[in-house]
Amino acid sequence: MxxxxxxxxxxxxxxxxxxxxxxxxxxxxxxxxxxxxxxxPADFLPDASRDTFFQEIKDLQDSAKELPYDLVAVxxxxxxxxxxxxxxxxxLTMVDDVEKHxxxxxxxxxxxxxxxxxxxxxxxxxxxxxxxxVDMRQFEISVQYLLRDGFDIGTGRDPYRNFIYxxxxxxxxxxxxxxxxxxxxQSGDKLLAKMCGVIASDExxxxxxxxxxxxxAAEVDASEVLVAFEDMMKKKIxxxxxxxxxxxxxxxxxxxxxxxxxxxxxxxTAVDYxxxxxxxxxxxxxxxxxxxxxxxxxxxxYLMRLPDRLLRIADRMKNPEKHYSxxxxxxxx
Length: 333
Hints:
This protein has helices at about 15-25, 55-65, 70-85, 85-95, 105-130, 135-150, 160-185, 190-235, 255-265, 270-285, 295-315. The protein is an all-alpha fold.
């Protein structure tokens, strides 16, 4: 889309969101796939209409038995996170100027993104149910709690902070699902590896979309974008499931155990956090941004120095050794 707007020096989010609306309508399809061409959960799961249905379930369960305990825990945590999708959709509709027009570019994007993401929880939920390794009642309690508790990610209604968050988070989710896919394959569960692989591919496309939204905003409001980015990194990007809990436990109690398991496996680590930030700095060409006001220049300088600082901290972090028995998993450790 041709840039016909002069740079905005007062940080008018409303003006920028209106400027981006035609881009959303015209370019959104680049980051989405036609419904009829998309994979669906049924493509991967045992088919109850076939005579081979029970054999397919037995094969699925035999493969799932070989998955390491921590990997099952991370898979369940990822599934709980995906199942909290209604929270994320309602949060996106509260971003300033998103819900301005029901058929506008922003609302169309939110609905299309939600429709694609909805398949992830559907697929993983059915897999863990069929696997026989998961206490589904405990899992479902965690999902209900996470939906009820919501999340607090420090973005408010600001579109810049929200889309910086989603840019970061979609990359993180891609990494997590991709690594689970690799570990599942190593353990002999080729079906789960395929499932997590296609989900990771969706997350990668969605990350590109949110990254492009911020790139477009930075063309006309670079200083405000950088200040928002700086603010998000100072607060730290929290995961959507940071309020994760099990039955009978207080809010957030379970998230550290889930994170420890992911760190031990190398599914998502402190170094990954730094690498994502580096990727976003490169994608948004932060080092080359010019015509900034004083706050924008300070933010740029802070952001460019931050990865090295965070990496030093990450390198000093010890791998968590203490294992945890999740109520989600049958039979204990």
